[in-house]
Design brief:
The protein is an all-beta fold. The chain is 0% helix and 51% strand. Strand 1 and strand 2 form a beta hairpin. It is elongated, with a radius of gyration of 15 Å. This is TPPC9 protein.
Length: 130
């Protein structure tokens, strides 16, 4: 489950926020398998989609994380969940996306593609209301 500014996100919704206001993020990982999983890391990477196949991940002048964008997860037991909190601060207006992925924490090998089940989150940063 992914919550942005307290609202559950799905792949069809656009979350609107204001430039300059921290936007709380919450990612809840639930282990539905019969075995414990871990260790691995949860990484959140913002990007802009230019709608021509190009994704711009070089956004350090437009977005900053309040806290870390990577969370290390030791073990999640069967039928249990782990919740991770963070926040984004948008410095400019625009349409941004958040790519959320899991990867093994002890080596560079990626987890199987079945782990990439989280859709990108679409966030629209707008001018503050005066």
């Amino acid at each position: 489950d992914i919550l942005v500014d307290g609202k559950v996100c799905d792949c069809d919704a656009v979350v609107t926020c204001q430039v300059g206001d921290p936007v709380p993020l919450q990612v809840k990982l639930t282990n539905w398998s019969k075995h414990s999983v871990g260790p691995f890391a949860l990484t959140m990477m913002p990007y802009q989609d230019y709608q021509n196949g190009v994704h711009n991940y070089d956004l350090q002048d437009a977005i900053t994380f309040v806290g870390s964008n990577t969370f290390h997860i030791d073990t999640v037991k069967p039928t249990k969940d782990s919740v991770y909190f963070g926040a984004l601060l948008f410095l400019y207006t625009g349409d941004f996306y958040l790519n959320i992925k899991f990867h093994e924490d002890n080596c560079s090998r990626e987890l199987p593609l079945s782990w990439f089940c989280l859709p990108s989150v679409h966030i629209r940063a707008t001018e503050p209301v005066a």
